[in-house]
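Memo to structure team: turn this sequence into structure tokens by end of day. - J.P.
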Amino acid sequence: MKNFFQRLLTGTMYVACVTVGILVNTYTFLALFSVVTALCLWEFYKLINATRDVNVNPYLNALGGLLLFVSTYLYVSGVSGHFVLLPYLLYIVYLLVTELYRKEEDPLSRLGYAFFGQVYIALPVALLNMISFQVDDAGNGHYYPVLALALFVFIWINDTGAYLVGMVFGKNRLFKRVSPKKSWEGFFGGLVFTVLSSLVFAHFEPEIDYYHWIAIAVVIVVFGTWGDLIESLIKRNLEVKDSGTSLPGHGGFLDRFDSLLLAVYGMLFYVQLFIRN
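Reply from structure team:
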């Protein structure tokens, strides 16, 4: 019972922080996801150092990912031109060149883990900017928080629906090798709940046709499930139960944002191809 209330409190604070960070203004959006990017990367690199015989600098690489997110934000919001990406490119060059002067073995492993963290975590969070902002012909960025909020709401509803339906009816394993507890029944249960919730967004945001909202919900369920499974694959390979202990009752930051890291791609593809084309 204590663990239940702990999970409930942490989950409520998590949902509140994300919702407020997205809806208030662009500055709270920037602050929220700057923190998310840095903490997820820091947690990932600390986990790699603890489970693998490598020495990846968690602070430097977390800073690198933060540079990518902030520079992308400044570019798509119209604050700065493309030259704002130069600091991140310098970080990439620094990573490569410093391996020439380190006297440690297996530089490819360090570089591999460093770059994997950037691609796996920093890149999709940076691309969230492209969902949340639309740049007009004059180069001005317009903020549309409803799309970013929908992304998270659909992930949350899918997770909740999949858990409840899977707990009651789950018999056929979805991906037993990676995540033995997930079931096909849970997957389709989460899908139904998420599609139903998309009709609420269609009602309050009629500028986007209802069938687009339904399609976005389906895309997020599929890609979000893949994101969850990929993090499970990583944890299974590293032989850990959770990515960290930062969020009581929920594990680490990656455990809370794993679905986002693939769902961003699916939503961005759909929005750019069918809504903003």
